[in-house]
Amino acid sequence: MEKKAYRFYGWQTAGPEIRELYDRFLAIWAEDTCAPRLRKDWSPQNPTVGHCSITSFLVQDLYGGKVYGVQLPDGSYHCYNDINGTVFDLTSEQFQGEVLPYENNPEQFREEHFKDKGKYQRYLLLKERFEKANK
Known about the structure:
By secondary structure, the protein is α+β, with helices and mostly antiparallel strands. It is built from five helices and three strands, in the order αααβββαα.
């Protein structure tokens, strides 16, 4: 059996359960769940684009932990997870090899992110697809 190569940030330390979780998200990330401002950059070849916050908060629903954000030049935050000191970013591949600074970033809260009703609706759609795909 061929061993799959993972490229998301933290895959080495996140463990097999998180790598499997990545595979499950890979099957459901889609253009309609991508952030509208990034849809021009979304493609099946780069499906993680525009999915950071909704994915990170769904991972938090499943496994707990905290969501942190790297502030980007445009002022927005790129979200990632920290579960009991294990830091990983399931959507880091959208940066095509650029390694973001994953230390000393502010915690992110769903209440703030989901003030954007469109983002909340995309989160609910991703959650619904995840639940259906994993019955």
